Amino acid sequence: MTADPSPAARVASLLRLLDLDETGPDSFVGHNRPDGVGRMFGGQVIAQALVAAERTVAPDRPVHSLHAYFLRGGNEAQDLALNVLRDLDGGSFANRRVVASQADTPILTLVASFHRRETGPHHAAPIPAVPAPEDLPDEAELRAEHAHLLPPERRAMVLRPRPIELRPVEARHWMNPAPREAKSHTWFRTAGPLPDDPRVHRAVLAYASDMSLLGTCTLPHGLSWILGNVMGVSLDHAVWFHDDFRADEWLLYVCDSPWAGGARGFNRGQIFTRDGRHVASVAQEGLIRPIGAARAT
Fold this sequence. Notes:
alpha+beta; globular
């Protein structure tokens, strides 16, 4: 892979991450980025665990929720073993548990629930009024513009090309660390087209849902792990899938953080399509420990 891959190459790399190898009954292996070095992105582990779970469920029962716990940091230099337990195959619902491991050590557990489509009452939150993505700068451009202000040891990671294109409405915490309200709005989509398989789009949304969320709880405190003044680690992560969508079309990620304390921050997210449909919700708690108070987890 080149140092600056094309958008199509970045998306192809993401699809390879989501194309698991089957190693036995309900057992799979997920691969890492070929240029990976250091800690594995949490969204990748969630997405690969979801793909493993969906491989064992009939297509007429799409996932409606997942709940994951991060147990240990993953290593991008190692493949990921994913083992699925079939806890339920009922009349309308199915339930799966997934253990993701490296070197025989669990790094994430995930429970996913699947629901056969039904009709029922409907209401949904409205999409907030924000600028269109075409009127906003690409985050990759913002990162390149501000890279010289970041600690040298973090620049390579910050500038690494991503398969997900982000267009933030507000300034990122690493651009302006002045304390502000714990809310953010970000448009996102893949850098290129995806296959039509809805399972791929759900996995990509699960992958992207770990982007820009945890940073919301640091906004009132002038903290940013990119600036190097806080240690931030995702502890748990939940996604609810409400409606159909395409992850290669613009989606708005609306995040807020109603609480932080005890070195933990709680974050919520709502995801909308461009035409205003509320298609997913997210919740996450993470460790936010100022560097001066850092100690082993």
